[in-house]
Amino acid sequence: MSSALIPTYARADLAFERGEGAWLVTVGGERYLDFGAGIAVASLGYGHPHLVGALKAQADKLWHTSNLYQIPEGERLARRLVDATFADMAFFTNSGAEALEFAVKTARKYHAVDGHPERFHVVTFEGAFHGRTIAMVAAGGNPKYYEGFGPKAPGFDQVPFNDIAAVRAAIGPQTGAVLIEPIQGEGGIREADPAFLKALRALCDECGLLLIYDEVQTGVGRTGRFFAYEHYGVAPDILAFAKGIGGGFPLGGCLATKEAARGMTAGTHGTTYGGNPLAMAVGNAVLDVILAPGFLEEVARKGLLLRQRLAQLRDAHPAIVKGVRGQGLMVGVETHLPPADFVAAARREHLLSVPAGDNVTRLLPPLTATDEELAEGVHRLERACVALEAARAKGAAS
Ligand SMILES: *Cc1c(COP(=O)(O)O)cnc(C)c1O
């Protein structure tokens, strides 16, 4: 039967019924090892007892009240995020794109209340991905995502990644902020150079610009630190997060210094659902696990282990695998074939992964995956490489 869903996705012919840790089980009972984690969302895997317990307990008490009232669990989550980061304040949303909309609105308002509403331009980077709202497809700058949806939203000036001279050249009297992913996710696990990010911070300070990090994918433990900027020792003024913070519950948000958020007073922005009691209970439960002593160190250790094993895979299958990169459990496998084909070959071995730009396949296992599961994932990729090589040899022979 044809689907009644609007077909904006090319979905794999797979439907899952339940999950356990790093594993998903289909309607038919087949088990898949999930190194996609719902695109870096299921940070603690599936059915984590602490998360399930927190959600069920909150579901019995209260789901939603609106932001017309105090939400104590939200106050608590904001305080914990602020205490663990550069920030002084937080705002909660339902998604990454909304978090970035808030980030850009905050930067524009910062200049507007200073008498400079003309400073609404934001410098962004080639290969970026910031979500799918009308403003964020302009910020991301990928024509595939903005063409056909009316005029491209003004105020986003795109420059090459890791090119400080290009940033400097793009800054004019209308520039108010710079928006960057410290490690590009959709763009293919492309890391900012430490020297570039330091120079970017200095340039922002020199020109009175706000530095905004998009840590929607890199944040909340994914790279082996709470936020990826900690690897660089370069703090932003504003930071957007989402994905991992909800462990599968729709939750995002924005962190900011008090100074950067100075324009965001009562009535300037709002959301009906953002930060509701169900989301806040889950967010706090995720932090209970991620911020527990030793957890992030384990993510970093497991990331290193995974990348070492993948380097061996590259050495054994150089015709398929070109390189391996990333931080923590945000890993990119660069291949000599289109990532969609590599992802499909891995899926035939019951391993789930996510394609990205730059001929890279992303491996984003749950942060709770065990050493054995990481090794098993690489075994499955090895089988995928063997199958791809066999298919190539057969193609060459016929
Ligand atoms: C996923 C993602 C977004 C968009 O998040 P949504 O929740 O899909 O709106 C924005 N930025 C980055 C870096 C992302 O990975």
Describe this structure in words.
Helix 3 (72-83) packs parallel to helix 10 (277-290). This protein has helices at 37-40, 49-61, 72-83, 96-112, 134-140, 143-146, 164-170, 194-207, 229-232, 277-290, 295-316, 339-348, 371-397, and strands spanning 16-20, 23-26, 31-34, 89-93, 121-125, 156-159, 175-180, 183-184, 190-191, 210-214, 238-241, 252-256, 321-327, 330-335, 351-352, 354-355, 360-363. The protein contains 13 helices and 17 strands. The model has no long low-confidence stretch (mean pLDDT 97). The strands form four sheets. A seven-stranded mixed sheet has the order 4-12-11-10-7-5-6, with helices on both faces. The chain has two domains: 16-42 and 296-397, Aspartate Aminotransferase, domain 1 (Alpha-Beta Complex), CATH 3.90.1150.10; 49-290, Type I PLP-dependent aspartate aminotransferase-like (Major domain) (Aspartate Aminotransferase, domain 2, 3-Layer(aba) Sandwich). It has 398 residues and is of the alpha/beta class. The structure holds pyridoxal-5'-phosphate. Pyridoxal-5'-phosphate is lined by residues 95-97, 100, 129-131, 181, 185, 214, 216-217, 242-243. Pyridoxal-5'-phosphate binds next to helix 4.
Quick check: average pLDDT?
97
Strand order of the largest sheet: 4-12-11-10-7-5-6
The succession of helices and strands, N to C, reads: EEEHHHEHEHHEHEEEHEHEEHHEEHEEEH
DSSP strand tally:
17
| Helix-strand category | alpha/beta
Small-molecule binders: pyridoxal-5'-phosphate
Overall tally of domains: 2
User: Distance between the terminal alpha carbons, to the nearest Å?
Assistant: 37 Å
Q: Specify the biggest β-sheet.
A: 7 strands, mixed
How large, in whole angstroms, is the Cα Rg? Answer: 21 Å
- Sum up the overall morphology in one term: globular
The CATH topology of the largest domain is given as Aspartate Aminotransferase, domain 2
Strand content bin: 15-25%
* CATH second-level architecture of the largest domain: 3-Layer(aba) Sandwich
- The tally of helices reads 13
**Residue ranges: pLDDT <50 for 5 or more in a row?**
none
